[in-house]
Write a structure and sequence with these properties.
This protein is an alpha+beta fold. It folds into two domains: 2-250, Metal-dependent hydrolases (TIM Barrel); 260-344, Immunoglobulin-like, CATH 2.60.40. The protein is built from seven helices and 20 strands. It has helices at 21-30, 87-96, 138-144, 149-158, 169-179, 209-212, 230-243, and strands at 2-10, 35-41, 51-53, 56-64, 71-74, 100-103, 132-137, 185-189, 196-199, 202-205, 216-222, 246-250, 260-264, 269-271, 275-276, 283-298, 301-313, 319-329, 332-339, 342-344. Bound molecules: zinc ion (2 copies). One zinc ion (ZN) is lined by residues 9, 11, 63, 104, 191.
């Protein structure tokens, strides 16, 4: 499999972000990203600029809805209007175009210093027909971490990563529950705007493009290398994303390039997103770029752990398996990689 590292959920000057698509692509190139997906609010205006910029594959979707139920729509050609309180209508219209759709920042806690605690959560969990959800959103969780002005200054000037504590357990629990019915794909988002934000009495830029492009990324695996042809590469990335052949990683402290999670039964190799027939010889394998702690989650519960760089899990029973990876940080560990699931049937 070939790995491409991308940053998803970016705002440009076509909505409330500060950068042009060309500037954003340049920032992505400087930190070594392979692709980016720009999702401006309520518009596909950036679509005319899709293509390779500075060697980075630039894809353009949109973010639909304003008050709540923010939905990232990718691989669509027609703008979909907001239906804030009827997200199923939005999901259906994206699907009718053959698009992919993801819940954006489904769980937010809010900060009283930011618009007096205003949040934009997902409210209707009974919808169907979507591709997946953003399990980890940089800007949303950063804001949630701003519990005081002192904390805001610390998170801006000293260590912004302190706020990024990992996907919220509520989101993972919802995701695990949805996985019981079908494949629901997890992605990570940055929600980068690179604008000055008012926090209490202070004004700060908290999500500079080149900074957040090094944090929560989505790594996509494709069966063939990208060709450099925009149209075929676009479809290759969207195809892998829709099948769950991807993982979410916080790349800042340690780039996660090289992580793999697959199943083998002695005859075939299966990837994340696949449904695998159970057999006695079936084993789950993982490779991590450095010595880490790996949690194997089955049907939403921790079922095994492993440490080191190579990880093999045998004696499997049917279930939905995914990995959570933690790397050493100071005296403890930090959440690093979240795989998509492999379903053993
Ligand atoms: Zn949003
Ligand atoms: Zn957004």
């Amino acid at each position: 499999m070939y790995e491409y590292v991308g940053n998803i959920h970016i705002h440009s000057h076509y909505s409330d972000g500060s950068g042009s698509i060309n500037q954003i692509a340049e920032a992505a190139q400087q930190v070594g990203l392979d692709f980016i997906i720009v999702t401006d609010h309520f518009t596909l205006a950036g679509k005319k600029e899709e293509g390779y910029h500075h060697g980075v594959l630039v894809l353009v979707g949109m973010e639909i809805n304003a008050e709540c139920n923010h939905y990232l729509a990718l691989n669509i050609d027609e703008e979909v209007p907001n239906h804030d309180h009827h997200p199923q209508a939005v999901i259906d219209q994206v699907r009718e175009q053959g698009g992919l759709g993801f819940f954006a920042h489904p769980v937010e806690k809010g900060s009283r210093l930011y618009k007096r605690g205003r949040i934009y959560p997902w409210t209707d969990w009974n919808v169907t027909g979507f591709t997946g959800l953003e399990i980890w959103n940089y800007l949303s969780q950063w804001r949630d971490g701003v519990t005081s002005l002192k904390k805001a200054l610390k998170l801006t000037l000293v260590n912004p990563h302190q706020a990024l504590v990992g996907p919220y357990p509520e989101v993972l629990k919802r995701w695990d529950r949805m996985l019981k019915k079908r494949l629901v794909v997890a992605i990570g988002g940055s929600d980068a705007h690179a604008v000055t934000v008012k926090l209490g009495l202070t004004r700060l830029v908290i999500d500079d493009y080149s900074m957040v492009f090094r944090c929560i990324n989505t790594h996509v695996l494709t069966p063939a290398p990208l060709s450099g042809n925009f149209l075929s590469d676009e479809q290759e990335i969207y195809h892998s994303l829709s099948r769950g052949r991807c993982f979410v990683a916080y790349d800042y402290f340690q780039p996660a390039r090289g992580f793999r999670f697959y199943a083998e039964d002695g005859r075939e190799q299966y990837q994340m997103g696949d449904v695998v027939p159970w057999s006695q010889r079936l084993a789950l394998h993982s490779k991590t770029p450095s010595d880490v702690l790996v949690h194997l989650i089955r049907d939403g519960s921790l079922c095994a752990t492993s440490s080191g760089r190579g990880h093999v899990f045998i004696d499997l029973i049917p279930g939905i398996y995914r990995l959570e990876v933690f790397h050493p940080y100071r005296r403890g560990v930090r959440p690093w990689i979240f795989s998509n699931p492999i379903r053993v049937k």
